[in-house]
Each structure stands twice: as structure tokens, then as C-alpha cells.
């Protein structure tokens, strides 16, 4: 960039680097074309990203941390704990590295920060990433095409609500009551369900963006008629959308998804309670598509 001053260019070359993560492994699903990427960072640590093709284009699920310390019983990401946060550049780098594998006229049109890690415990880097990826001088991604998922970090939800960003907030709910949620997600002991739900209500009030509630269906754990009833009570009067996710089983954890007919019955029960609900397609089940699976297997 010869139009920049020499001293500035010299300073940049001495103090900064421009490195994309290296794509180490790519697995393509024979079932649905979903691609799972294992990317190696500059320090040798590895993160995952999942590229999904929809009618509207490509959606990319990216990681926010190397590993995770939330301890959720059903998730492979938590095996081995958290090593460090990703920088804003490393969040961006996942997108840019994977876009290089697409055709020249293709790009990622939606980004979901729902891979390995808890984004709201990497708040500053997350926010910088969102502002960079939506900047008209950069990728110029629509702010409404970004989803950030959280296990329920109440201070982070409230802080994000005050940013004035029209992103979609997704809460990993997975249980309609505190004792069960706490048994599945240890972080729930620090942030009780009633406090989490109040923070989500406030997020909607401040942003006008309806919160999505992720609910991983686990056979014999949270998929019974009593759970439908309690979810009906929990969401009565709340503008919400529940995304049902048949569990993508992890060998080490010993939990399984319900059979398809039970999943459909659960969804119909919620609809009868007046809850807006969808069943998320299980993508990439044949390529270790669930969070943390590929990274875990490649490290063994």
C-alpha cells in the first residue's frame, strides 16, 4: 500500500500480522452437504466451524473460544475445558478462510456464533467482531443476519441489549425448570432460570428482536409431556420462538435423541400451548457435526 506513509507501513510490518486460520480438516456430509471445518490457529490451537447450505444461501456457525468450560452434560465442546478466548480477528478469520473455499460468486450470508465456547464470556472481542463484519467497508453483512447464542450469562445479555444492535439472541434453554436445567447445565447454578428469562424479556423490550430458545431434546431426560406443560407455563404471554434440536449424540456422554415420532409429538404439544416452534434439521450427523466432536476426535 504505497499510498501510506513509509514509517506507518514499517510499524505495521514490525508489530502486526495478517494471518488466516489454516483449514486442517474438511468433512462433507453425504446426507445433506453440510461441511465441518477444523481450523488451526497461529498458536496451534484448533477450533471448529460448520457451513450449511440453505435456500437463501450459506449459513456459517463459528466458534468463540478454544474449548469451553460451561460443562453442559450433552456437549462435546466442554470435554477438556476452555483454553482461551478467540480474538476478533480469529472470529473473522473463520469466515474469510472458509469463504475462500466457495465459488467466486458465493459468500456466507448468515453467521451464527453458536459453535465451541460461550460468546458472552468473550464479550469485547465478540462486539468488535460484530462491528467489523457488518461494516460497509468490510463484509457488510446484515446485522439481522447474525445470531449469538448464550448459555444464559445474565450480565452479558443485559449489556448486549444496551448496545443498540439488532442481532438475534439465542438462549440455550434445554429445560423448563431450574433443577433440571441446573443438572444439565452447571452454569445455571450461577444464573437461575427466572433471572435468565427476565433478562431475555428485557432484551426483547429494548431491541424489538424476538429471542430464540434452543431446546436440545434428550431421550428420557427433557422430552416428556410434563416438560411440554411446564414450557407452556414458562412461555405464557412471552413473544418467543422455540427451536427444538434432536440431540446430536456424543459417544463419551451416553445421551441419545428421542425417536422422530416423539420429537414430532413434543412439537405438536408446544403448538397446542400457543408456542411458536420449529424442529431444526439435524445436519452433519455423519461428520461429527455437533459442537466439539471433530476437534475432540482429532486430538485423540
Description:
This protein has helices at 6-15, 88-99, 123-133, 154-161, 178-184, 193-207, 225-234, 260-272, 293-299; strands spanning 22-28, 35-40, 46-54, 57-62, 65-67, 82-85, 108-113, 146-150, 168-172, 211-217, 240-246, 276-279. The N and C termini lie far apart (44 Å). Helix content is 31%, strand content 23%. The model has no long low-confidence stretch (mean pLDDT 91). The strands form two sheets. The chain has a ten-stranded mixed sheet with strand order 1-2-3-4-7-8-9-10-11-12. Strands 5-6 form a two-stranded antiparallel ribbon.
Write the layout of secondary structure elements.
Layout: H1 6-15, E1 22-28, E2 35-40, E3 46-54, E4 57-62, E5 65-67, E6 82-85, H2 88-99, E7 108-113, H3 123-133, E8 146-150, H4 154-161, E9 168-172, H5 178-184, H6 193-207, E10 211-217, H7 225-234, E11 240-246, H8 260-272, E12 276-279, H9 293-299
Parallel strand pairs: 4-7, 7-8, 8-9, 9-10, 10-11, 11-12
Antiparallel strand pairs: 1-2, 2-3, 3-4, 5-6
List keywords for this structure.
300 residues, alpha/beta, two-stranded antiparallel sheet, 12 strands
Sequence of secondary-structure elements: HEEEEEEHEHEHEHHEHEHEH
* Unreliable sequence segments: none
Averaging pLDDT over every residue, what do you get?
91
Secondary structure class reads alpha/beta
* Oligomeric grouping of the chains: single chain
Rg from Cα: 20 Å
* Major sheet attributes: 10 strands, mixed
Shape: globular
Percent helix: 25-40%
What topology, given as strand order, has the largest sheet? Answer: 1-2-3-4-7-8-9-10-11-12
Q: How many DSSP-defined strands?
A: 12
Beta fraction of the residues?
15-25%
Number of helices: 9
- Measured between the Cα atoms of the first and last residue, the distance is 44 Å
Amino acid at each position: 500500500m504505497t499510498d501510506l506513509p513509509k514509517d506507518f507501513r514499517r510499524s505495521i510490518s514490525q508489530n502486526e500480522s495478517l494471518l488466516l486460520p489454516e483449514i486442517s480438516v474438511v468433512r462433507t456430509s453425504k446426507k445433506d452437504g453440510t461441511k465441518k471445518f477444523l481450523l488451526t490457529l497461529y498458536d496451534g490451537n484448533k477450533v471448529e466451524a460448520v457451513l450449511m447450505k440453505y435456500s437463501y444461501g450459506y449459513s456459517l456457525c463459528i466458534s468463540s473460544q478454544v474449548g469451553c468450560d460451561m460443562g453442559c452434560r450433552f456437549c462435546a465442546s466442554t470435554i477438556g475445558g476452555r483454553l482461551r478466548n478467540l480474538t476478533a480477528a480469529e472470529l473473522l478469520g473463520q469466515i474469510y478462510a472458509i469463504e475462500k473455499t466457495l465459488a467466486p460468486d458465493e459468500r456466507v450470508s448468515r453467521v451464527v456464533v453458536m459453535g465451541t465456547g460461550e460468546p458472552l464470556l468473550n464479550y469485547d472481542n465478540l462486539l468488535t467482531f460484530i462491528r467489523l463484519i457488518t461494516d460497509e467497508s468490510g463484509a457488510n453483512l446484515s446485522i439481522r443476519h447474525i445470531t449469538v447464542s448464550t448459555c444464559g450469562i445474565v450480565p452479558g445479555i443485559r449489556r448486549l441489549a444496551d448496545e443498540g444492535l439488532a442481532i438475534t439472541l439465542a438462549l440455550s434453554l434445554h429445560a423448563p425448570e431450574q433443577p433440571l436445567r441446573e443438572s444439565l447445565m452447571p452454569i445455571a447454578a450461577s444464573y437461575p432460570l427466572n433471572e435468565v428469562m427476565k433478562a431475555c424479556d428485557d432484551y426483547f423490550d429494548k431491541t424489538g428482536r424476538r429471542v430464540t430458545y434452543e431446546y436440545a431434546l434428550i431421550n428420557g431426560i427433557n422430552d416428556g409431556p410434563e416438560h411440554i406443560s411446564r414450557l407452556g407455563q414458562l412461555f405464557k404471554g412471552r413473544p418467543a420462538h422455540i427451536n427444538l434440536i434432536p440431540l446430536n449424540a456424543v459417544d463419551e456422554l451416553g445421551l441419545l435423541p428421542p425417536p422422530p415420532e416423539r420429537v414430532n409429538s413434543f412439537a405438536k404439544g408446544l403448538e397446542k400451548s400457543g408456542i411458536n416452534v420449529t424442529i431444526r434439521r439435524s445436519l452433519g450427523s455423519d461428520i461429527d457435526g455437533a459442537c466439539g466432536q471433530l476437534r475432540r476426535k482429532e486430538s485423540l
